[in-house]
Amino acid sequence: MRTVIPVENNDTLAALRGFLTQLLEEQIVDALLLPMETPAGTITPALVVDPNLLDAANPLAPVMGLNAARVAGHVSAREPRGRVGVALRSCEMRALVELVKLQQASLDDLVTISIDCLGTYDVSVYTEMRSNGGVDMAALLATAHSGELAPMEGYAFRDACQMCEKPHFDGADVTVELFGADLTAGIPVSLPDEMATTLGMEPA
What we know:
Helix content: 25-40%
Largest sheet: 7 strands, mixed
Radius of gyration: 16 Å
Distance between the termini: 8 Å
Number of helices: 7
Order of helices and strands: EHEEHEHEHHHEEH
């Protein structure tokens, strides 16, 4: 089903956090692996089981210190394990697929959540951006609407992002579709019908 996550008060990140929180509260997943903001302001992948902690989730933060597919692979290989939702960028999803081929990861108990990538910066660059006033989220989301991805003035994307030709991924269980959308009004998302019904979502 294709539907839309409603956005209130132009707060796209809060809407996405709310959707992820629902996945835990409705027990669609037992845990979520996703980028979390630490008290120091850095972004790191973390495994979360408490929905109340998702106020610190930031899957839209344009920074990548490591490819979280490797972390997802380790999580998927642990025993015992519950059903884990993994929120990954497009390149991380492709890396996870390769790890599965190499038998270094398993999709058996994973709910894959692919989020369109709007470009990322190195950790040092992101830290500098934060010290100079932070990320202009409105400008970042505007690039999603236009489809013309561009770094913030005075900064450069990671080399891998500059070469990337596929900042989206098709084939995940849940796909958060940022490109072409007015994200201040709603976030398009594709997900299984049964999951959408559990979440009380209707086709749009």
